[in-house]
Amino acid sequence: MLLAIDTGNTNVKIGIFEGNRIRASWAIYTRINQTADEYAVMLLNMLKNQGIDTQDISDVAISCVVPPLRRTLNQLFERYFNLKPLMVGPGIKTGIRIRMDNPREVGSDRIANATAAHHIYKGTVIVVAMGTATAFDTVSKAGDYLGGAVAPGIAISAEALFERTAALPRVEFIRPKSAIGTNTIAAIQSGLIFGYAGLIEGVVSRIQEELEEKATVVATGGYADLIADETKIINVVNPDLTLMGLKILFDMNK
Questions:
Q1: Residue 101 bears catalytic tag
Q2: Which of 6, 14, 129, 216 could form a disulfide with 135 if both were Cys (CB 3.0 to 4.6 A apart)?
Q3: What sign does the CA torsion over 42, 153, 32, 68 have?
Q4: This model's pTM is above 0.85
Q5: CB of 122 within 8 A of CB of 141?
Q6: Does the 2-87 domain belong in CATH 3.30.420.40?
Q7: 28-51: per-residue pLDDT in tens?
Q8: What is the pLDDT of residues 132-154, one digit of tens each?
Q9: Is 252 helix (H, G, I), strand (E, B) or coil?
């Protein structure tokens, strides 16, 4: 079995592949100061609950955008699984050509998303990854990673609003009844939910205007379902896109 790990700034998403099928997946908070042993306790318990032994894990693929955790994760798998993970980064085979000014700047999660989108959806694709940041990645039909855009994520924006104002509260991320909020909480929810739907529509439309053919728009990340319900510009929601990309990258590099 392949164990795939997508380590983001807010969450760590873990998936177990049995062949090409995701047998189980989990999400935990990203904790920069947690040791390899502490991460191991959580991971081993999750595997045990699914009836999976460490000996069942034959390979590991990791995307990590939190530099201090790369060493921690390497230690975890060397110590508890006797495995050396494939760490997505410069020098690995991706099946796509990165047309950025500096290809090394592209985050490993964005590489995994772009690789998965190109292999799964075939044509020109715009990936909208809604996590700590909202990242837009564009891949041509020919497999060229063209670049994209990055905006603050919805949670960061909400937290900044709370921290930088004296009277505005934290709110739950749920759809308000209408765009015209009749109380403070509903007004903030309207600005966040409908505002981010508008942001995504605006950026995707501008990217689409610069492309030679119509792109499939694929949303992923923790807030994808919430925002996708508010816009018709998103064609597909794939919450496991990054994990699928890690599986594809591992198969290319094994």
A1: no
A2: 129
A3: positive
A4: yes
A5: yes
A6: yes
A7: 999 999 999 999 999 999 999 999
A8: 999 999 999 999 999 999 999 99
A9: helix
